[in-house]
Amino acid sequence: MSELRTIGSPESLRRDVVVVGAGPAGLMAARRLYEAGQSVAVLEARDRVGGRTWSAEVDGAFLELGGQWVSPDQTELLGLLDELGKETYPRYRDGASVYISPAAGERHVYEGESFPVTESTAAEIDRLTELLDELAAEIGAEQPWAHPRARELDTVSFQDWLRSHCDDELACRSVGIFIAGGMLTKPAHSFSALQAVLMAASAGSFTNLTDEDFILDRRVIGGMQSVSQALAAELPEDTVILNSPVRTISTEPEGGVTVWSDNATVHAEQAVIAVPPNLYSRITFEPPLPRLQHQMHQHQSMGLVIKVHAVYDRPFWREKGLSGTGFGPDELCQEVYDNTNYGDERGTLVAFVSDEKADAVFALRESERRRKILESLANYLGAEALTPEVYYESDFGSEEWTRGAYAASYDLGGLHRYGAHQLEPVGPLHWACSDLASAGYQHVDGALRQGRRAAEEILDKTT
């Protein structure tokens, strides 16, 4: 079993491959390369592995501060969990859900998959869902930019696309919540219909995104970060070097690459850049990356979401026959779920405050923000939600080496212009992260797929 280390002073290392980033993508790349006989160094800016997966104990409660869920289509992740001997457990979902209608704010307790709206609105939601399912199946996740309709769909915002196909405002907002607030964590006017179709296709269909029992199916016992910890433990001692943000990457004229970080300089034949695109600009590339790369990176940005954790002495909502699941297009917390840990007698709720709503509450004092968020939880589940034993807000937007959540996406028009080039190697530099995935886009599954792909790309060049 390897030991993670922080080198006390800069030292020079020579490896076949250097990996920048010790999240799931970087560690999967390192694992595959090591299996093939390559020597590897992994440089990680943080004091931990896992990237946007992060499990921690907060005030005596185990919380998954980052990515956590596993869905049935995520075969790369599921296969790895089997290899690592890790078990999963289902998200609690017994009982009724709660829907809070916009404007009037009426609270509805309902069973089944459909929101409790009028028949006409329900029909429009179904029709929009069918349209998006058809587009996702037709365009796919692998090369959406290559489809004949790519430019058409990429130059109209998802908000405008919805309203051009439907004049029922509630239906448009109810459909939009699943991609805008629920996935890309950006306002629906800021990204394209093509980007929305990619998000849906990456999960198999738009219907899968709207089915919380599919997309939020299971969790890993011990937390999702434990997957990265297990991958790192398989590597030779001193492979993963923490607290080592990469400052400069130099591509040598005679071949190879030199990577300078705070605690190590690594000379290698190839490099895998396994951090999200919004962090590429934190690195100085010598010589500079090609113009097309610079342009592309300027059109990719992270979303913004607060992941709220509230832990109670018991899962009180279950006593009321509620699953803990709630949706509200106008609510501060647009989504709420039972997030109780495996074998835990206490009850945990997780909720999400996205994009412009997050902007608004970040302008408040911390105490006022907490009060408003808990009031939103109480709107769904009752006054007991106002007094958790443990309360915590995950804000990856303020984390130095993430700066947003959940993942990067293109601005309006960017996907069809640059998508075909996002994985193109630049000499010995190869790219890998969930932000660039097709299947599993924005998820750990996609990160693992991209790490494996980058490793195979290198092995194809060197064998």
UniProtKB/TrEMBL annotation:
Gene3D superfamilies: FAD/NAD(P)-binding domain
Domain Amine oxidase: 25-459
Binding of FAD, residues: 44-45, 246
Positions bound to substrate: 352
Keyword set, alphabetical order: Oxidoreductase
Cofactor(s) required for function per UniProt: FAD
GO molecular function terms noted in the UniProt entry: oxidoreductase activity
Family listed: Belongs to the flavin monoamine oxidase family.
Name used for this protein in its record: NAD(P)/FAD-dependent oxidoreductase
Source organism (scientific name): Nesterenkonia sedimenti
